[in-house]
Amino acid sequence: MKAFVTGGSGFIGAAIVRALLEDGFGVRVLLRPGSDRRNLAGLEVEQWEGDLLQPASLANGMAGCDLLFHAAADYRLWTPEPAAMYAANVDGTRNILAAALESGISRVVYTSSVGTLGNPGDGRPGTEETPVTLADMVGHYKRSKFLAEREAESFLAKGLPLVIVNPSTPVGPGDVKPTPTGKMIVDFLNGRMPAYLETGLNIIDVDDCARGHLLAASRGEIGRKYILGGEDLSMKEILRLLAAASGRPAPKMRLPRLPVLLAAHASEAVARVTGREPLIPVAGVRMAAKKMFFDSSRARAELGLDTGAPAVALQRAVDWFRANGYVSPQES
Length: 332
Description:
This protein is of the alpha/beta class and 332 residues long. It contains eleven helices and twelve strands. The model has no long low-confidence stretch (mean pLDDT 96).
């Protein structure tokens, strides 16, 4: 069997590609011209140049493929051009799923996010069924992914054999950009985190997350959502594990939320003038007001999802960032 993977040079996408190759699948990866292809180095995959916003390039790319893993997304907590993020995440999803329908793909796994799900925020974990609306979405990334998930669901009525997965917070090797969580780890390793804002995240190893995608393709029920999560941890606990993994001290000072939010607004005001990413994105501070805890019991029961310890996932992330030049020599 052959799989077509979007976002295959990215963090989750490349892990999906590796898992597919391990299981003996043929793999074709959609890549834009000029894409960073470091995550694909040495992997025996077909590289198909195209663009989610150019529909003509998509159906041809899927010719001869049985499965589609749509993992591509514009994942940033701040962008100077929100319209481009909505185009990539919403329009791009519509285009690739329309091409999959036209191509007769036998199973589609769409990578959404736990950010699109309802979340009590008080320490109780959210589930696939926790009530949620667009008004609950904080920032352009979450809003665009929420709308993209609605686009994906609309294709079920058209007969597309679609399964949705909602990864929590993946960490591990291959976070080349890096993601906002990866950037937090890099800042920690470089001694740029003198204090922290308390919140909570659900940590999963990126390779376990990728394995969950393959399980969704083979065992998932069409039209159903599955949270791909690991273990819920407070930020204080995450920093303690990072300290153990790196040998660096964890910051002890916990910051109050309001001053940080004011600083984030000031940081974004500067970013709008300079065009550079703000040091503190407002969306990130607002998201931190809720503990992003989630229940992955459905994926464990129905898909057989199995996940390792977050300490191991964070250790793998620390080792990869150090080995790949993200940490200054004096901090290593």
